[in-house]
Amino acid sequence: MKHLFFLSLAALFALPSLAAQQAAVLPATAEVSLTFTRQSGAASNQYAVWVENAQGQYVRTLYATRWTAAGGWQRRPTSIPVWVSRSGLSEKTRAQVDAISGATGQTGGRVHAWDGRDSNGNLVPPGNYVIFVEGTLRWENQVMHRAPITIGQGPATATVSVEFSGPSTAERGMLSGVSVRVLR
User: What pTM was computed for the model?
Assistant: First the structure.
């Protein structure tokens, strides 16, 4: 009988902890979908996806290609330079870089989800944010996708604008079909 009492008591104390853990796992707030088409040759295939608030302050990186994030930006300053600057990459620890970067994948669709948290793991308040997708197409040739979103007003599809820079018009299809959906 004592064992049953202690088991019941242990279960009672475990419930709030379990509920807190489940509450900490939130569904995605927004999703960025895109098609990545791998390019041949050097100085390409680098991209990053990140969030800023309406005042232009960095919030969080959702993804960055490992080569640039792990130091390639120092050898090739034209590799996703806007993200490198705004993310404060030079101040990040190796563990922080590993948490946001991944290997450059093969051609195909990608989905990058944002859980509504900043780079410190804190939930951001409802309001206006901007999701950026920057790509280095080849050397100094860049593409920047920009999608203003509003968090806290329900599901919506964002309007994504795109701007290319650099002298070449080749390889502009490296990042295509970029769309952003707010889920909650």
Answer: 0.83
